[in-house]
Amino acid sequence: MPKWVVPALVLLGSLALVPPLLIARERSTTFREPKVHLIPDMDHQFKYKAQQENPLFADARAMRLPVENTVARGELKADSHLNMGVVNDEWATTFPFPITADVMARGKQRFDIYCSPCHGLDGRGNGTVAVRALARGESKWIPPLSFYDATVVGRAHGHIYNTIKNGIRNMPGYASQIETEDRWAIVAYVRALQRSQNATIEDVPQSMRSSMR
Ligand code: HEC
Predict the structure, then answer these.
(1) Distance, CA of 182 to CA of 96 (rounded, Å)
(2) Is residue 96 part of a domain?
(3) To test ligand 1's pocket by mutation, which of 162, 163, 187 has the most ligand atoms within 8 angstroms of CB?
(4) Is the CB of 190 under 6 A from ligand 1?
(5) Domain boundaries, position 148
(6) Is 86 in the pocket of ligand 1 (CB under 6 A)?
(7) Could you tell me if the CB of 142 is within 6 A of ligand 1?
(8) Ligand 1 atom with least separation from CA of 142
(9) What is the Cα–Cα distance from 4 to 146, expressed in whole angstroms?
């Protein structure tokens, strides 16, 4: 083997380390100026970022406030029956739109998601959260009211709508998770649950009565 082979291999080996070291340095260092940008994209366009100053405006805020007295599309909550559950300054005793089988099905589905963890699928207040809180002996736990409690049975539709939207006493509001129409659908389903526990033979369609005991 000629004498130069070993030094040559050592030299090549060391040179091979240079590119990865350069890449590592490039990746781990920060630069004030943007790095070489072969294809300019929107990273470097002129723009204001949140909280920056913009001298164009008297108050120098880049983040503009909404124009006063304007309402975003679909955000005008002016229908007091639909949006607040109130008719003539009293809790509504009617629904703001017709309750169809589809609405009822939607109400059941939303109820099972949002209400049943505490109130239970049947509304008696034995949801998994409530059951677990009792099993753990949580001293601060307030059991959810049963929907068959005379208080709740006697509530107007609008009151229950408001309970879903804004919460009541120890129950949190669900306005941010449940849309307006869905809140009413849930009210309809709560009414159906209550009626189911207080039904007479008159509630059963004539054609089905004979099949009942
Ligand atoms: C985190 C548990 C929890 C969830 C989820 C929950 N509730 Fe409640 N709810 C309660 C508790 C607790 C009370 C009793 C509050 C009290 O007495 O301080 C209550 C009370 C009520 C009442 C009776 C209020 C009254 O005095 O008229 C209604 C009606 C009701 N809830 C409906 C609902 C509906 C509908 C949903 C689903 C959108 C829901 N709740 C979701 C815990 C919950």
Answers:
(1) 12
(2) yes
(3) 163
(4) yes
(5) 80-200
(6) no
(7) yes
(8) 12
(9) 92
Instruction: Read off the pTM.
Output: 0.68
Distance 145 CA to ligand 1 centre (A): 6
Q: Is residue 64 part of a domain?
A: no
CATH classification at residue 179: 1.10.760.10
Three-state DSSP state, 187: helix
- Furthest-apart CA atoms within the chain: distance in Å: 110
Q: Give a yes or no: residue 191 inside a domain.
A: yes
In total, how many domains does the chain have? 1
User: Could you tell me if 167 and 148 are in contact, meaning their C-beta atoms sit under 8 angstroms apart?
Assistant: no
Residue to substitute in 114, 145, 165, 184 for testing ligand 1 pocket (most ligand atoms within 8 angstroms of CB): 145
Per-residue pLDDT of the chain (213 residues; tens, 9 = 90+): 888 999 999 999 999 999 999 999 988 888 887 777 777 777 777 888 889 999 999 999 999 988 888 888 878 888 888 888 888 888 888 888 888 989 999 999 999 999 998 888 888 888 888 888 888 887 788 888 888 888 888 888 989 999 999 988 888 899 899 999 999 999 999 999 888 887 777 778 888 787 776
Tell whether 47 is covered by a domain.
Answer: no
- The closest-lying atom of ligand 1 relative to the alpha carbon of residue 111 is 37
Strand, coil or helix: what is 168?
A: strand
Probe ligand 1: pick from 171, 174, 177, 189, max atoms within 8 Å of CB? 171
Are 180 and 82 in contact, with CB atoms under 8 Å apart? yes
